[in-house]
Design a protein that fits this description.
By secondary structure, the protein is of the alpha+beta class. The chain is globular, with a radius of gyration of 28 Å.
């Protein structure tokens, strides 16, 4: 049998692919463009049973306990609560193992005071003055009768950090360039496409802003530069803000995730900025000007009271000052609703659109315009949310400090309806809606959901990725729905009580319209999906109803008031940023105990989580139908190579603190893998092998170098380098081929290196053209190509014969082609993905032709029974393996990347390679039908294989 060779670009055109990573903070790891699944969070295997008096639950990846309950240990009653909390931790080092309790390295995030003299202090961990991401510890106390006592603690304090925090080797400028390049790769689109008529080929436009140097608490710690990258998604015009962490030693993007907190799952992102101050005249206005009683009609036809404000010129504004105390009308909360109709969502993401104003009705009686725009619902519901948190929990606004509440209503996306809503750190933004959807403020649970994100931000601040992000969404859903029921006088016994977004549709009924159902019965064992960060930030919406369903069951069985008190207390006083499902369970159980529930009630709380599969060790029950080659490789976005019975893959230690190194092994799984790259603190990534040599890229502080090493052993050779972001590496015979982002044009380009001479050659040099998605075999390099001609841009797949220098375009109709995807080369010809209908749900054909362009055939069609939303491909002489990735209008197992295999001539049609329900990405064909990939089903990044398709699933 002939050796099968197939190469794919990895990352440069990554519309939505990704890989999963392991537990702990490593669950948040991402790379230049492709993010990993956040599976179990920081200590997901810790015990979750309700603790007895003075019980301590150990942490994971740290000596500090994750939860201590049942204490009554007196501390100083004078001085600040933060000082008292630090004093307690210092006095009990044998319990907490916190060496430095000074205000410099254990800084106060804030103290909240609740009824009964309860104080909750949140302390942020720093190491040698550098902030530790997610390192937050909570101390709970009571203060009354002149005495103060600690009742418990919880959180993540990472005790195993040991690293140098001196100035990073990577400059701020380089870090920004690498971060922008990483985000450009993330949003570069899955195919090479023709620019719109009259436009030039252009890269996505993003800008980066450097934040603080930050430690990722993996193992002994990873020093990074935190870069915030903002811009617009070139695929759909939606706003983008990515939080990118660049390794301070090598410059490799080790983590990247989106910051947007949306009602529905999207691939957008936002940030946070300070909003406008209250109107200047409010401080001097007459008292009767502050609150003007008006009225309006909600979408559902109900007429409601609307509080307005009369400015000094006599004009009315949609500002509500009614929540202020009667004896202090000029200080306190303010609810303001802004007219953002026609403004782009991206212009309202983390910033304020220029010239934006509050809605300004002519009379106190708001007409139909204010109903249809969503202004009435947004303004009225914001007041109801404020009242809910104030009346039930004595919480003063979202931040607990009477902070202003801002809502922007009516944004659009590329001039079209924006069917979503989000919280960007300081304000709510509601999409205009259109077609089948109303403006997204039309449902009270949407408003409650987004505003609860604000409450979460100012309490546990659950990181919006993976399990912690799913919990963030779950709590927003829980309270959003609770507020909806209370404000609209709906009983928990109503069969539709668990629905969210059910009132958003113009025609569909509640069950057909709802985006989520808290009574959907989702469990970890049947419904948890190992999904990447490509669109849902690691399953923040997709997996949220597992946790929110547990909370909602508890509310149904315990009653609304008690359940709400338990969940709020767990959020405000127990949870910390990196908590996952198991920590969330423990927090809720501990909060219930603190609130004095009966044994029967406590059993109900536990039973609610048990019913949804949230029990210690639940991750181990996720099954697969594949052979595991390497488990817990703990990487993301760096690809995988295979050929000649060998595989090459990057790998980190289980805790994710070790820079990626390249390992070589046998594709049959026999024998032990071999370390082939240096282990010098740089990141060695994008590994590939043809069975004879291994190639990879090494990220250093100022440049990327390319290495080649013989499979049989020997010294590796540096064959080239570049000062730009690299997106893929492929090797076959004498040639290494790589794609990169041209730093001058921002466009993707392809080069190849002759490893005998180290000579580097650009395959196409047109300054406004573009090449991408290369593959190589037997001296022939295939790639997708975009170039300008007098009548516009053209797309094609080209093959370069390195022996003769001849270039041959494959037979593609330039008048019909809408996009070109991944190429693959075997002994028998060239394969590529071709999209001729950009209006479908992502379906694309797989084509094949001889090297000279003759004998073109369709392997899988773009339409019909065998059509696939082909996204990537890899081929041997005996089989073509296609990554299927449909455009997602919802999130479930069917919308995740899955592998299909088909014969090179297309006969027999495609079959599923594996029925695993997690992400299946970075497929790499070996010999025959054997294919390897990185799989996320079990909750880790596992390198797996199958030798033949599973068939139908």
């Amino acid at each position: 049998m002939r050796t099968s060779v197939r190469r794919r670009a990895v990352g440069s055109q990554g519309r939505r692919t990704g890989v999963v990573v392991g537990q702990g903070i490593a669950a948040l790891l991402a790379t230049a463009g492709l993010m990993a699944t956040a599976m179990p969070a920081a200590h997901a295997d810790t015990a979750a049973a309700a603790p007895a008096a003075s019980e301590t639950t150990p942490g994971s990846e740290t000596d500090a306990p994750s939860l201590v309950t049942g204490l009554h240990e007196e501390v100083a009653a004078t001085g600040s609560a933060a000082d008292a909390a630090r004093g307690h931790l210092k006095a009990r080092k044998s319990r907490y193992h916190i060496a430095d309790t000074s205000a410099k390295d254990l800084t106060s995030v804030g103290t909240t005071t609740e009824k009964g003299g309860k104080e909750t202090v949140r302390l942020q961990q720093k190491y040698k003055g550098v902030e530790v991401l997610g390192g937050q510890y909570v101390v709970r106390m009571t203060k009354k009768d002149g005495k103060r006592a600690v009742t418990g603690t919880s959180g993540n304090y990472f005790t195993k950090l040991k690293l140098d925090t001196v100035a990073p080797k990577v400059s701020e400028k380089t870090a920004i360039e690498r971060a922008v390049g990483a985000v450009s790769a993330q949003f570069g689109g899955g195919m090479l496409r023709v620019p719109a008529k009259g436009e030039k080929a252009a890269a996505a436009e993003f800008t980066g802003k450097a934040g603080d140097v930050t430690i990722l608490p993996q193992g002994t710690g990873v020093l990074t530069r935190h870069i915030t990258v903002t811009g617009t998604n070139p695929a759909d015009g939606s706003p983008v803000q990515q939080e990118v962490y660049i390794d301070a030693h090598s410059g490799f993007p080790v983590m990247q995730y989106s910051g947007i907190q949306t009602f529905g799952a999207t691939n957008t992102a936002t940030g946070a900025t300070d909003g406008p101050a209250a109107p200047a005249e409010a401080s001097t206005a007459a008292a009767d000007q502050l609150v003007v009683k008006g009225s309006g009609v909600r979408y559902d036809g109900e007429k409601v009271d609307i509080n307005l404000y009369k400015d000094t010129k006599g004009g009315l504004q949609m500002i509500d000052y009614s929540k202020r105390a009667a004896d202090s009308p000029y200080a306190g909360p303010m609810i303001a609703t802004y007219d953002a109709r026609g403004r782009e969502a991206s212009s309202a993401s983390g910033v304020w659109p220029s010239g934006i104003q509050t809605f300004r009705p002519a009379t106190p009686e708001l007409g139909e315009e204010y109903t249809n725009s969503g202004a009435v619902d947004a303004h009225w519901a914001a007041g109801k949310v404020y009242d809910f948190y104030k009346n039930h929990f004595d919480r003063n606004s979202l931040d607990g400090k009477d902070g202003f509440i801002y809502s922007l209503v009516g944004v659009v996306n590329n001039g079209q309806p924006y069917n979503n809503a989000f919280w960007d750190g300081t304000k709510m933004v509601y999409g205009q809606g259109g077609g089948d959807y109303r403006t997204f403020s039309a449902d009270t649970d949407v408003v409650g959901h987004e505003m609860t994100h604000g409450v979460v931000t100012h309490t546990a601040n659950l990181v919006y990725a993976g399990q912690s992000g799913a919990m963030n969404e779950a709590i927003a859903d829980y309270f959003g729905n609770a507020i909806d029921l209370e404000a609209n006088h709906v009983s928990m016994s109503d069969p539709d009580a668990g629905l969210l977004g059910e009132d958003l549709c113009t025609h569909a009924g509640p069950r057909e319209c709802a985006l989520r159902d808290l009574n959907d019965g989702a469990t970890t064992s049947k419904n948890f999906i190992g999904v990447s960060y490509r669109g849902d930030n690691g399953g923040v919406h997709l997996n949220s109803t597992i946790f929110s369903g547990s909370l909602w069951d508890m509310r149904e069985d315990l009653g609304a008031e008690l359940a709400d008190q338990i969940v709020y207390r767990a959020l405000s006083a127990y949870m910390t940023p990196l908590d996952g499902f198991t920590e969330g369970r423990a927090a809720v159980i501990a909060a219930a105990q603190e609130l004095g529930v009966t044994k029967a009630q406590l059993n109900i709380v536990k039973r609610s989580f048990d019913a949804h599969g949230i029990v210690p060790g639940w991750e181990k029950a996720l099954g697969v139908d594949t052979d595991t080659i390497l488990s817990k490789v703990n990487i993301a976005g760096t690809g995988l190579g295979a050929g000649g019975g060998k595989y090459a893959v990057s790998r980190s230690n289980e805790e994710g603190s070790e820079p990626y190194s390249v390992w070589l092994g046998n594709t049959n799984g026999k024998g032990q893998p071999q370390l082939v790259s240096p282990n010098n603190g740089n990141y060695n990534v994008y590994a590939d092998t043809d069975g004879k040599n291994v190639a990879w890229a090494e990220y250093g502080p100022s440049a990327v170098s390319f290495h080649v090493r013989p499979v049989k052993g020997g010294m590796d050779k540096v064959v080239g380098g570049i000062g730009a972001n690299v997106n893929s590496v492929a090797i076959d015979g004498n040639y290494v081929v790589y794609s990169y982002v041209n730093p001058r044009t921002g466009l993707t380009a392809v080069r190849y290196i002759d490893i005998r001479t180290s000579e580097t050659t650009e395959v196409f040099t047109n300054p406004v053209g573009q090449t991408a998605l290369p593959s190589v075999h037997d001296g022939k390099i295939a790639y997708a190509k975009l170039w300008p001609e007098s009548d516009g841009y053209k797309l094609g797949v080209e093959v370069l014969d390195t022996a003769t220098g001849k270039k041959t375009l494959m037979p593609i109709d330039p008048a019909n082609v809408g996009g070109l995807g991944q190429t693959a080369v075997t002994d028998d010809g060239v394969f590529w993905i071709e999209d001729n209908d950009i209006t479908d749900m992502g379906e694309a054909a797989v084509r094949r032709a001889n090297f000279d362009g003759t004998n073109p055939i369709t392997v899988t069609p773009e339409a019909g029974a065998d059509a696939l939303p082909a996204y990537q491909l890899t081929a041997s002489d005996d089989a073509v393996t296609i990554t299927s990735l449909p455009l997602a209008t919802s999130w479930d197992n069917a919308t995740l990347p899955k592998l299909y295999q088909v014969a090179p001539d297309g006969k027999g049609g495609p079959q599923r390679v594996s029925c695993n329900r997690g992400d299946q990405v970075f497929g790499a064909a070996d010999e025959g039908g054997r294919v390897l990939w990185l799989d996320g089903t079990t909750g880790y990044t596992n390198l797996v294989k199958r030798d033949r398709p599973a068939g139908k699933c």
